[in-house]
Amino acid sequence: MNPNRLAKVLALFLGFAGIMHFASPSFFNDIVPPWLPPSPSFWTYISGIAELVTAVLLLRPATRRTGAIAAVWLFIAVYPANIYMVWDWRNEVASQQFISWARLPFQFLFIWVAWVIIQTNADTEIPKAPGDI
Questions:
Q1: In a 3-state reduction of DSSP, which class is residue 93?
Q2: What is the DSSP letter of 100?
């Protein structure tokens, strides 16, 4: 698949996931490891915002590489929630346990997709902060 098309598909996925953090926060609150301060809602909304911003960055060719780098870090950052979900759902029915386990390798697939986008857009300069020379 064309890497720019991959970027758009990844952006749609992240955009949908980001919206769902606000539309159905209870699901995401439940998979936030409870030992993370200050609250599960905080992490649900912060990760939802991060997903929406990353989706927008991936859609724009000028910021696509930055968006892909952000996506890699985002997928790494939310991985503990997926691990916690596996542990928390250990007594659920087999179909739900399967879903929780299936999420783990998908994170690596998403990281790989973002990495392909980074490599394809390697000639795109990463924007600098205002005032940087």
A1: coil
A2: H
